[in-house]
Amino acid sequence: MSSILTAVLIVGIIGLVCGIALAIASIVLAVPVDEKAEAITEMLPGANCGACGYSGCAGYAAALSSGETTDTALCNPGGNEVSAQIAKYLGLSAGSIEPMTAVVLCQGTYANATTKMNYKGVQSCKMASQLFGGPKDCVHGCLGLGDCVRECPYHAINICDGVARVNPAICKACKKCVAACPKGLIELLPLNKSKAAVLCKNKDKGAIARKECKMACIGCMKCVKVCEAEAVTVKNFNAHVDTEKCTGCGKCHEVCPVGCIDILNL
Amino acid sequence: MKYMIALLVMGLLTNNFVLSKFYGICPFLGVSKKLNTAVGMSAAVIFVMLMATAATYPINVLLEKNDLAFLQTVIFILVIAALVQMVEIVLKKFMKPLYNSLGIYLPLITTNCAVLGVVILNIDEGYTFLQAMVNSLGAGLGFMLAMVLFAGVRKKMENCDVPEFLKGLPITLVAASLVSLSFLGFGGIVEGMGLI
C-alpha cells in the first residue's frame, strides 16, 4: 500500500515541478505574436513564389508590418487589388503594379532549328546546356527540356513543339522561370499593350545564325533604321527592343527579313 | 580518463546511436535534407540528452531507494517531455528561423527513442554520474555526426537520376543502410587503441 502511495507521490511531485517550471518559462519567454503580419499574410495570395524578393508570403508580411519596406506593390501575383488592400490596412499609399507576363524569346521549334546531336541524357535544360550548349545547333535557344515548366508554381508554362511557351492568362510574373532558364531567354513584358519583341537571343553572326535556325536574328540592322522611336538596338548581331520607348507601330515587324520580330499584345 | 575517451569514441563511431543501434531514425530521415537544420536538430538533441541524463540520474537513485524501478520508463518520458517543451519555448524565443525549419520534428524529440534509449542504457550499464554524462554526450555527438554525414549524402543524391520507383524515402533508406554498413568498419577501434 505504502509503495503505491510513494509511487503516486513521486510521479505527482515530478509532474507538478515540471508543469510549474514550464508555466513560468512560457510566461517569461513568451513571444509576442505579430497580429499585423498575420493579417497581411491572410491578404497575400499565399503562393510563396518569392516574386517580392522575400522568403515567401509570411516573410513579405513580416517586412511590411515591421516597417522594413513600405512598398505594397511588390506582390505581382496579387496585383493592384492586394496592393490596395494592404495599403488600406497599413495606412500607406498603394503602389501600382503594371501587369506583366513572362515571354520565352525563342522560336527554335523542331521545324525551325536544326540539331547537332540526339540528346538522351538527364531531361534538364541546365544539364543539357553543359554538354556543348545543348542538343540544338543554336546554343542560345530554348532546349525545351522544361526547367521553367518544373519551376513555375502556377503551371503556366508548357513545351510546344520543342520550345517553352508561357500562357499569359495564367502567368503571375513571379520571375521564377526567369531565374530557372539557363539560357536567359525569358523576359517580362507588359500585359494588354502592343509592344514589339525580338523572339531570338542568337548572338552569332548572321550567316551562322541563319544556318542554325530559320527564325534567328541575323543582326541586319533593318529594324534599327526603320524604327522612329529609336527603340531598337543591335548588339552582338542580335536586335533588342526597349519596351519603354516602343510605340508598337509594327514597322520593324514588317521589315524583318527572317520574321523574328513580332508585335505582341499579350 | 581513458575510459571516458573510450565511451566518447564508442558513442561516436562503434556504437553510433543512429547507425549501429538504429535509434532516432525518424528525425534522422526527416531533418537531414539540409545541413543547417541537421546541425540545429542535432544540437537540440544533444542538449536534451545531456539535460535528461542529468535530471533522470538522481531521480533513478530515488526510485531505486524506494524499490520503484518499474516507474523508470513513465517518469523518464515525463521528464524528457518537459525538457523538450522547455527547449521549444527557448528556441521559439531566441532562434525563430531554426524553430520554423525544424517544424514538427522538434516536439517529436519527446518520442525520440535515442533520448530515452541513452537514459535507460546509462542505468542498465551501471555508469556513474560522470560516465553517464560522457556517454550521453558521445551518443549526442554520434547522432550529430550521422546527421551531418547523411545531409551531405542526401545533397549529393539530389543531383542523381534516381529510378522513379525508388524516388523519395526508398532511396534514402538504401543510402542510410549503406552509411550504416560503412560504420561497421570502425568495429574494434576502441580495443585497438587500447582504451579498454
Write a concise keyword list for the protein shown above.
heterodimer, A: 266 residues, 3-methyladenine DNA Glycosylase II, Chain A, domain 3, Alpha-Beta Plaits, 3 domains, two-stranded antiparallel ribbon, B: 196 residues
Q: What's the layout of helices and strands?
A:
The complex is a heterodimer of chains A (266) and B (196).
Chain A lengths: L1 H27 L6 H9 L13 H9 L13 H12 L9 E5 L20 H5 L17 H5 L5 E4 L2 E4 L9 H5 L5 E5 L3 E5 L7 H7 L9 H5 L5 E4 L2 E4 L9 H5 L5 E5 L1
Antiparallel strand pairs in A: 1-4, 2-3, 5-8, 6-7
Chain B lengths: L1 H13 L10 H6 L4 H31 L6 H23 L1 H7 L10 H12 L4 H30 L10 H16 L4 H4 L4
Q: In angstroms, what is the radius of gyration of chain A?
A: 28 Å
- Overall shape of chain A: it is elongated
By DSSP, the count of extended strands of chain B is: 0
How far is the first residue's CA from the last residue's CA of chain B? 11 Å
Alpha-beta classification of chain A: alpha+beta
What's the CATH class of the largest domain in chain A, please? Answer: Alpha Beta
| Average pLDDT taken over every residue of chain B | 86
Indicate how many domains the architecture of chain B comprises.
1
Largest sheet of chain B: none
The share of residues in extended strands of chain B comes to under 5%
Q: Which fold name fills CATH's third level, the topology of the largest domain in chain A?
A: Alpha-Beta Plaits
Order of helices and strands of chain B: HHHHHHHHH
Oligomer category: heterodimer
Low-confidence stretches of chain A: none
Query: What class do helices, strands and sheet pairing of chain B give?
Result: mainly alpha
